[in-house]
Design goal:
The chain is mostly helical. The protein has eight helices and no strands. One of its GO terms (cellular component) is nucleus.
């Protein structure tokens, strides 16, 4: 390893000595005079702090409740509004502050425009003998001319909006007719029945309605029901296509049904045994 050299002190590390050009004598005496935070040599000669002196002076006021309020001194406005010989007061000068991210050139241009505006106002006020506050302010504005194509587009848009509004009004009226106001406590047992026929409905009775047509299956069922002895009982008790109980059937039909049931049970048991043997 190489030898480590001692770090050299830069200019920052140099000590600045106290030098008084008008002093003649030893330097130690100057150092003794400039010492701070030293203990007092005599306790009686110690000065009273300013805050303690303030409390001692205002002790009686604090007991009463009165407290001295220190008001901050406001900066005096050195601007003179009225100078001897003037007829009207001067306007206060505007304060220009450079905005954030505003370039120096833009800031100077803004200041120049404001000064030119103030100078023009003063010239006009002196010429006409009246106080002109702001030249730019006013109710009159130059109207921008609209092109023909723009006018046609606006007209078409206006007509379209008017038509949409008319259609919306018609839809709202139709929904009002469809609504049915039901009072509180009103009970409805069935849906409404349509008594009136459509305008183009055929009034001739040669065209049968659904449920009243003479179908082939319907004729066969009616013929079978008429041939059975208990047809009068069944017709009164049940409708066409409805199942009947075993006790209401005849003895012959009961025997046929029992035989078919037994046959189905035997077939099911045979299939079950075959599946068990295969597995």
């Amino acid at each position: 390893m190489g030898k480590m050299s001692k770090p050299q002190k830069s200019k920052k590390h140099r000590k600045i000595k106290f030098v008084d050009p008008f002093y003649n004598g030893e330097r130690k005496q100057i150092h003794q005079k400039t010492r701070q935070d030293e203990a007092p040599k005599n306790d009686d000669a110690q000065e009273i702090p300013r805050k303690v002196q303030f409390f001692m002076d205002n002790k009686e006021k604090f007991k009463i409740g009165k407290r001295q309020k220190f008001k901050k001194k406001k900066a005096k406005d050195t601007f003179q509004k009225m100078i001897p010989g003037q007829t009207r007061p001067l306007d206060p000068p505007p304060v220009f502050i450079q905005k954030k991210k505003e370039k120096e050139r833009d800031f100077l241009n803004r200041v120049d425009n404001a000064t030119q505006k103030v100078l023009l106002q003063s010239k006009l006020s002196d010429h006409y003998g009246m106080n002109i506050e702001d030249i730019d302010e006013g109710d009159l504005k130059k109207k921008k001319s609209i092109s023909k194509s723009r006018k046609e587009k606006l007209k078409h848009k206006k007509e379209k909006m008017k038509q949409k509004k008319h259609e919306r009004d018609i839809d709202n009226k139709e929904t009002e007719f469809l609504k049915d106001d039901i009072q509180f406590g009103e009970v409805v047992s069935a849906p409404p029945t349509l008594t009136s026929k459509p305008r183009r409905a055929v009034k001739d009775e040669q065209f049968s309605k659904p449920g009243k047509r003479s179908l082939l299956l319907k004729e066969i069922i009616l013929a079978n029901s008429a041939s059975s002895p208990n047809s009068s009982l069944r017709s009164s008790n049940r409708e066409i296509g409805q199942t009947t109980k075993r006790k209401n059937l005849s003895m012959a039909k009961q025997q046929v049904m029992d035989a078919e049931r037994q046959k189905a049970i035997d077939l099911y048991r045979l299939m079950k045994n075959k599946t068990v043997k295969v597995s």
